[in-house]
Every structure is written in C-alpha cells, then in structure tokens.
C-alpha cells in the first residue's frame, strides 16, 4: 500500500488491446466517471516497484512471459499512486516485454462507461533517456570530427525536421494534396540544407540547380511508375491506422510519392555536393586541364560513389524490410514464388523505392558534374606544381 492518504491501489488485468484490460476497482483515484467521456483515456508513466508473479507460456514455438506487476505512478493524476497490474491471464499478447523492478513503463488508462471502472494496460518501456544519450553522442562526434561544417549540418538537420513536422505533416493531415506539398517542402528543404551547410556561394548555387533538376526527373519517373504499377500506397501496416483518424481523406498514393521524394532528396544531396567538390579540387590541382578532361576525371570519382551509394540504398531498404524478406524465404502464401513475391504490393513498393533512389543517384551525377565543370571557374592563381 502507498504511504497513506488518498493513494489508492488499483488492480487491473490485461487483454489483447489496451481497451481489453479490466479493472477490479470500482472507483478511480482520478475521479473519472462514466458521465465524463472526456476523461475516458490517458497515458502516464510509472515505475515497476515489485514483480508480484510471473508465468512462462509456450505457444506455437514462441515463448511468452506474463507478469503481475505493482507499479507506482510518476506523473499526472497518477503520481505516487500504486497500481497492481495483472498481466497473467488466458489472453496471450505476442511480443510483450519482460519487466523488472526499477523499469520505467508507459501505462494507458481508459474508462469503462458501463461499470465506471478504470482499465489499464502496460504499453511499453520508457526508453527515451537512452535515445537522448545516443543523440548527444552523435552531436558530439559530428562536431568534433567535422568542426564548423558538422555544426552547420546539424543545424540543417534541425531545419529539415522542423519543416517536415511543422509544414508537411500538418498540411497533409489537413487534406492538402501530398505531391504538390512535398514538392514545395522538398524545394525549401534542399535550398535550406545546401545554403546552411555550404554557405552562400557558387558551389551552393550549382548544387541547388543540380538537385532541383534531378529531383524533378525522379519525381516524373515516380509519378509514372507508381501509376503504371498501380501501387495504392496502402500496403504498409501504418496506413490502416490513419484511416478514419483525420477529418480529411488522405491520398495514400500521393503519400507514397511524397515519401519517395523525401528519401531521394537525402541521397541526392550527398552525391551532388560530392561531385561539385570533386570538380573544384581537380581544378585547384590543375587549372590548365580542359573541361572535358575535368569532366571525365570527376565522373570516375562519381562512378565509385555511385556503386557504393546503390549498395547503401539496397542495404538500407533490405534492413527495414527484413521481416518481409523472411516471409519470402519461408515461401508461404502470398510469397510462394519469386514472381509472386515481387508482385505483392509490399515488396513492389520497397523495390520501387530502391530503384528510384538509384535512378536519382545515377541521374544527378552527370548533371551536377557537367554544371560544375561549365560554371565553376578555375582558380585565378595557379598552384606552383601545376604544369
């Protein structure tokens, strides 16, 4: 029991969903009632103060652990309140966590309008503290290794994140067409990224022109191939959670195109800046080389970069789609044959993302190199070692 006063102990049991949990307490320490629908759901953090009981369950070769826990609320109306959570029951929740004393967890409370009872469900660990620590380490190493340029890159990252979350996402949720919005947002993002990271100079101007032209080509290819392959954009599991949650209908095909444009923008920035810098360095080393020779030498650098980036794209998407690849390897419906696997919309979507990203890299390399060679002037004072 808590240390006195009005602190209640609320006992709940689990189910397959948060709303399936039931509580043996007929009263709530938050004062919620069946007549107060506005207070029918909330989330709060708690700490495990005791593992009351634990049971191992083996179902279809998968081991599950069910637990009864005593929790202590850490915030909101449940601060310092104790909750006895009964997770041991007939319903087996796949992928549930195993908690220990001292773990910080996220708890969801809902309200049963019929019985007036509080319903609880332990959702997950609270893990953001370690994410903050990793982010701090990332920022530290970027600044130490890259110096002022690394700091500028981090600033451009923050600007991009702010634009996506503050402009792109709200506009799409408000019912704006995703593709035009993504085009405008991507334009603002790559202009901001380049100028913040590289400064306001000729290199940046050339990079923006190259990225813009390449992104336009990729956008047209994306539009054509998502239409010709009849991808709906609803293959991902997350899309079903968006259905009915917004006041406006969401164009999921447009959302898919927007995601492709955003993903392509990241790799285009890398390739374009690298190619322009290659041209600049070759010109610095030997300003007497004809432009065709500079173009050829820069393209050799670009080809090596192209090979590594294409592999990077494939591995990135393969890593994200690893459960999908496992399903394909097991050869169970609907992934019995190779042709059936690539025809499935989930797999086809990942293939399309990878190929369009690779096409973006391939198209941007000669575009950026040519513009840099033609418009990047040779240094006014030749180096001493130049022939």
Describe this structure in words.
By secondary structure, the protein is α+β, with helices and mostly antiparallel strands. The chain folds into 2 domains: 9-125, no CATH class; 147-375, Multidrug efflux transporter AcrB transmembrane fold (Up-down Bundle). 54% of the residues lie in helices and 15% in strands. The chain is built from 9 helices and 7 strands; from the N terminus they run βββββββααααααααα. The chain has helices at 128-173, 178-198, 202-228, 238-242, 252-285, 291-320, 322-330, 338-343, 345-375, and strands at residues 9-13, 22-23, 41-59, 62-73, 82-86, 104-111, 118-125. The protein has a 7-stranded mixed β-sheet, with no helix packed on it. Strand 6 (104-111) and strand 7 form a beta hairpin. Helix 2 runs antiparallel to helix 3 (202-228), helix 2 runs parallel beside helix 5 (252-285) and helix 5 runs parallel beside helix 9 (345-375). It is elongated, with a radius of gyration of 28 Å. The model is unreliable at 1-7 and 13-38 (pLDDT under 50).
């Amino acid at each position: 029991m808590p240390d006195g006063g009005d602190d209640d102990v609320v006992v709940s049991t689990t189910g397959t969903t948060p709303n399936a949990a039931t509580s043996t307490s007929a009263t709530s320490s938050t004062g919620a009632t069946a007549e107060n629908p506005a207070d029918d759901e909330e989330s709060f953090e708690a700490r495990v103060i005791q593992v009351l009981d634990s049971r191992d369950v083996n179902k279809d070769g998968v081991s599950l652990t069910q637990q009864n826990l005593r929790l202590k609320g850490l915030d909101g109306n449940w601060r310092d309140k104790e909750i006895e959570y009964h997770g041991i029951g007939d319903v087996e929740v796949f992928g549930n966590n195993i908690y220990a004393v001292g773990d910080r967890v996220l708890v969801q409370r809902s309200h049963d309008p019929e019985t007036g009872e509080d319903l609880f469900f332990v959702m997950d660990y609270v893990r953001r503290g370690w994410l903050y620590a990793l982010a701090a380490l990332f920022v530290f190493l970027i600044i130490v290794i890259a110096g002022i340029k690394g700091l500028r890159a981090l600033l451009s990252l923050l600007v991009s994140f702010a634009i996506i979350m503050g402009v792109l996402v709200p506009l799409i949720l408000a019912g704006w067409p995703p593709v035009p919005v993504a085009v405008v947002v991507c334009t603002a993002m790559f202009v901001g990224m380049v100028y913040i990271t590289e400064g306001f100079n000729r290199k940046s101007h050339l990079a923006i022109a190259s990225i813009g032209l390449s992104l336009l080509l990729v956008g047209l290819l994306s539009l054509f191939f998502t239409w010709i392959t009849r991808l709906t954009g609803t293959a991902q599991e997350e899309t079903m959670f968006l259905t009915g949650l917004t006041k406006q209908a969401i164009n999921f095909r447009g959302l898919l195109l927007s995601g492709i444009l955003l993903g392509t923008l990241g790799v285009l920035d890398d390739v374009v800046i690298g190619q322009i810098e290659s041209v600049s360095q070759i010109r610095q080393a030997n300003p007497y080389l004809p432009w065709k020779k500079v173009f050829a030498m820069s393209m050799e650098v670009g080809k090596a970069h192209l090979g590594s980036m294409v592999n990077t794209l494939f591995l990135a998407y393969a890593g994200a789609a690893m459960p999908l690849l496992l399903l394909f390897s097991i050869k169970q419906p609907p992934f019995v044959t190779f042709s059936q696997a690539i025809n499935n919309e989930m797999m086809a979507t990942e293939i399309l993302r990878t190929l369009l990203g690779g096409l973006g890299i391939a198209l941007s390399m000669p575009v950026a190199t040519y513009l840099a060679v033609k418009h990047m002037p040779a240094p006014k004072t030749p180096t001493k070692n130049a022939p």
